[in-house]
Every structure is written in C-alpha cells, then in structure tokens.
Amino acid sequence: MISIHKLTIGAAAAALMASTAVAQTPAPTAPANTPPAATAPAATAPAMTPGGTTAPDIVMSQKPDQWLASKFRGTDVLGADDTKIGDVSDILFDKTGKIDAFVISVGGFLGVGAKSVALSPASFDVVPGKDGGADQLKLSMSKEQLTQAQNFEPYQPPRTTTGANPGGSPRPMNTAPATGR
C-alpha cells in the first residue's frame, strides 16, 4: 500500500514535471478565465552535450501566461450557484505534460467519505476569489450532479505473484541456493 507521504511526494514531483513541460512550450494567449491546457514541447532537435547526451532544457522563470500546478491544488471549486462544491485534490496529466483532468474531491467531512471526480480543464472557468482571495474554479454543475458523477479511480498496477518463495526463507535475488560444496 502506498503511504500518504509517498503519494504526496509523487504528486509534487508530477506537478513539478508538468509545470516544467508547460513552461518549456510557448503557450498561446488564452482568455483570463480559461484554465491552461498544457501542451507537449515543440518538436525541435534537442541540444547535445559534447559527450553525445541530450542537454537539459532549463527554464529560468515562469511567464505571465503560465500557471503552476500548485496554483490549482487545493483550490475551491464552485458550482453553478457560486457555492463551494469541492476542491482540487489532484491533477491528472499524460507523459507529455498535457493536463487531462483536475481531480475534484466532493462531499465528506475533513476528507473522510469524500468522492473523487475527474473533469477536463475545459470544464472550468477561473474566477477571482471573494474579497481579493485566491482564484477559484467554477463549474456549470451542481454539487448533486457532481456527487452523481462516476468516481475517478487512479491506476493501480497489477500485483505480481511470480517469483514468490512460499514457505521458504527469503534470499536475495541473483543468488543461488547453497549447494553444500
């Protein structure tokens, strides 16, 4: 089972990779109330180092038309009637860095009994927070519609049972059993 600590570190690393991929590509200017749809880096030949390896593409700073994943994680999600219906618990993106969905935590109390629903970034409008607070995301759905939506299930790799040593003592891989010689 994955610990919360490992999951948090994994999510932070994923968000960092996504923001780096987004920052490497010039993004077209979008209306202020539209969340970004990250795109893959431009198809240009990567720079090579003298040893023949690919040189890292270092991004020095964030541009005004770019957002970090951390901006949305924990953000309140408002329903069609402007009441809070959940918050962003995670961000789903593919290996190219394109954001596929914001995962919304709905219902429950202090995270217990909450349901996760994933929606594409195009489903949201970014709206200013109340009294100058942090921006919020708005949906054209009600809390009831969101709680009726299908649950988001994170990928769980299949469990492998090969290589098990039932009933025997564990031994390091790549070592042969003692032969008594």
Widest sheet: strand ordering = 4-3-2-1-6-5
Task: Give the full name of the CATH homologous superfamily of the domain at 1-27 and 68-154.
Answer: PRC-barrel domain
Q: Which H/E pattern describes the elements?
A: HHEEEEEEH
User: So what's the overall shape?
Assistant: flat
Gyration radius, rounded: 22 Å
CATH architecture of the domain at 1-27 and 68-154: Roll
> What composes the largest sheet?
6 strands, mixed
Kindly describe this structure.
The chain has a domain at 1-27 and 68-154: Roll (SH3 type barrels). It is 17% helix and 18% strand. The chain is built from 3 helices and 6 strands. It has a 6-stranded mixed sheet. A hairpin with an 8-residue loop joins strand 5 and strand 6. The longest helix is centred in the N-terminal third of the chain and has 21 residues, at 4-24. The model is unreliable at 1-8, 16-32 and 38-43 (pLDDT under 50).
